[in-house]
Amino acid sequence: MADIKENAKAVVTSTLPREFDISYSTTLEEVYEKLNARAAAFQMPFEIKGGIAGQRIAFVKEPDLDIAIWLYVKDGNHIKIVPNLQQIQTSVNGIRVDKNSALRRGVKGAYVDIHVERGAYADKVADTVKKILNGEEVEDYVAPVSAAPEAGNGVSNRSWKTTFWLSFFFGYLGIHRYYVGKVGTGILYNVTFGLFGIGSFVDFIKICCGKFTDKQGNYIVKKKKNNSEG
Questions:
Q1: What whole-number distance in Å separates Cα of residue 181 and Cα of residue 133?
Q2: Could you tell me where the DSSP H helices lie in 171-223?
Q3: pTM
Q4: Percentages helix, strand, coil for the chain, rounded to the nearest 5?
Q5: Angle, CA 223 vertex, CA 222 and CA 226 arms, to 5°
Q6: DSSP-derived secondary structure letter, 13
Q7: Is residue 44 packed enough to be buried (19+ CB in 10 Å), middle (13-18) or exposed (0-12)?
């Protein structure tokens, strides 16, 4: 129950402003100079921008989370950090297929996890900014190391059942290819109706035989019945 409450809170608060006061009066330019001196502490680069949104320090959009950060200085000592969602949703015949869709991330990933991750990112930026402006030490940002997927010889973590049914109902649109990460050929199938039906038919046969692969070349196969998804 506690996890559900925390996740619900994260969904609601992920793009809400983070605000705090500092003990001295400053300007946006002075804040920028201080942050720029410790630019290595941030995941994304930033610069001062103006325009309709107002004078602000704008962090470049985090590409996986589709969120940018805008920093404002109000009344000289009030810092307002605004997460700005910059998401481009891609749909094929009404089915959303972009990287943060339920098709690609799963239902929990698209409707809960992505908000938790966005909120955590905004909190991290706000905390780092606060520490720098208060003269505290901050560590350099270190990108997480993820193991490269083993291509060609492994078994995919994509569901065989989902791939099968997407191919069965929407093969001519290439939806099954979006699902396994093959976005380029998914677009090709969409504009050619599954390579004029030939490509979608070949894919369906491969899926049935366990010979269809995901983007990394790993086979999408039926899993043995041991209370796991097939």
A1: 42
A2: 175-179, 183-196, 198-209
A3: 0.71
A4: 45, 15, 40
A5: 145
A6: H
A7: middle
